[in-house]
Write a structure and sequence with these properties.
hydrolase, serine-type endopeptidase activity, 4 helices, Peptidase_S1_PA_chymotrypsin, Peptidase_S1A, alpha+beta, Transmembrane protease serine 12-like isoform X1, Thrombin, subunit H
Amino acid sequence: MSRNFCPVAFSFWALLVLFREAAPKALPPMNLSDGCGARPAIVNITAETQSLGGHVAQLGAWPWQVSLQIYRVPSGRYQHVCGGSLINNNSVLTVARCIEKWVNPEYWRVVIGLHHLYKPHSHTISHRVKSIIVHSGFKWDSYENDIAMFKLVKLVEYNKYIQPICLPQNSHLVTDKNPCYISGWENRKKKGKIETVLQEAQVITVPLYVCNKYERYKERLSTDMICAASPTNSCMEDSGGPLMCYFPNVSKYYLIGITSFSSGCNQDDYPGLYTRTISYRKWIDFNLHDKTTTAMNIQSIVVLLTMEWITFHLL
C-alpha cells in the first residue's frame, strides 16, 4: 500500500493544481448588470449627441466602440477594417461580412478606447484575438444572420474610456423616447483628407415595410433586421459598429443593432441596415461561454486520471 500511495497522492495533488490553473477566471456580471451601457467620461449622458448630422465624437463618448484591425503583410502594419462593440470583458460583437476570408484570429487585433485611428491616447488598449465565431447561417448574397463574435486572449480592464454596452432583452422596445446613435471611423474623403477621428450621428429607425419598398432592398428584409436613417448615414467602412439606443428609465445605452450595410456618406437614397441584436440573443449567450477552454480542461483531467490508473497498477 505504501508503494501505491505516492503515485495516487501525486495524481490527486496534480488534479488539484489543474483545477486551480484551468478554472476560468471569474468574469464581472455581464450585460444586464449595473456595469454596462454607461459613459463615465461624459458628464451629461446625452448632451453632446443631439445633432442629427454626423460630427466628431467626444473622447470617451462611446467607450464600447472598438476598431477591428487586420495585419497587412505588404505594409507591415495593422489596418482598420470594421467597427465592433465590447459586450463584456473578453467578447466583441461585429458583423460577419467584416471577416471575409480572414478567419484566422492571428491576423487580427482589437483596439479599445481609441479615438483617433493613428494616435492612441493613454487609455487605448490593443488586444490579441483568441477566436472568431461567424454565424453558421450567414450568406454573402443576403443580409441574413450577419453577425460574428471576437473572443479575446486576455480579459479587458475597464476604465472611464473602456466600458461594455448592454445587450437588450425582449422588454427593450425602441420608441420615440429612445434616442439612437451610430458611431465609427468613416474613412471618408473630404477635399483629399481622410477622416480618422471617431464620428457619431443620431439616427431615426424606419419601419421595415418602408425599407422593403426601396429598390436596394426589394422586399428582402426580415424582422431580424433594423432600418435607420439620418442626413449623414454611416459609411461602408463603418460596418460592424453599434446602433445604440438610450433608455432614460435606467440611464443606459443598449446595443439594439450592428451596422450591416449603409447607403454611404451623405446619401439618403435609402436607410442603413442593421442586424437586430435581440434576434440573436440565444446565439450570443451560447457563444459567450468559452467552450474551447472547458473542453481542454476535461481532456487534461481524463489524461491525468488515466496516468494515475496506469501508475497505480504497475507499482
